[in-house]
Amino acid sequence: MPKSLNEFSAADWRRLRPLTQAIKTARYNLIDRTYRRRPAAAGDAAAVAQSVRGRKLLVTITFGDPKLVLWQTCLVRHYVPNALHVIVDNSMKDEIAHEICRLALRAGTAYLRVPRNPWSGHGASRSHGIALNWTWQNVVRVGEPDAFGFIDHDIFPTAFDDPFAPLSNQDFYGIVRDAGPRWFLWAGFCMFRFSAVKYKTLDFRQDWFIGLDTGGGNWRPLYSQADRTILREQPTHLIPFKPGIALADGPLQWCGTWLHEVGLMGDRRLFAEKRATLAAMLAPHFEAAGGAATG
Question: What's the predicted TM-score (pTM) here?
Fold first, then answer.
């Protein structure tokens, strides 16, 4: 969405930014509305929606990394037994999507693949946001679960947890990110009571014009109407994955008892070592869950 008119500076007006932002917003919204109406590229969205009614639904938006799906399905099944877990695949390559589908179904987890994403290759946040909106429209709103949540594919429970429990006292729960005077729930860990948002015009896309990343599109219809001072939030902190490196070069994130790889951050030369460290940290939990860390 474009900024409110009173938020534009004189320089913005000279550069016609109110007009250009309005035009871009109209274009983005048209693409979003069209995309939401497209059928799944794989899987039966209507059947999945029917299966979630009255349940606690946990949706993973995954892309391009089958090993993470293998690990996460194993640990969610063990540590979050009250949730119905669904994999929604935003992978670009067919062979990777087929492997993710195989792993999900082998784990007993429902699988859907979103339609071909118009933003693939044009930024991960934009691609992620429109996949979330497709899922909200075609699975959550149709299915009417008791509660639902979205998680990234690189976040893993390491202890028994009910991430929906805080919803007994508030309408949504998760990790809050600040952006100046505004805030939003990080799209990688956010939970909602369905009855509280059923009639909201939710929008899980980014809202870069006001500085909000993926999930920030819900600022206007949802978060701006809430009193943050009374909200319980998921605690979180970042750590380097090994001693002797800068946090920015190789962060891991603890989100309560959930461990987040933070796969898009850090020195890419350290990625393999960071992934190996993550696997070692999760190994006892795979053993506890009775699952293997190999496909």
Answer: 0.92
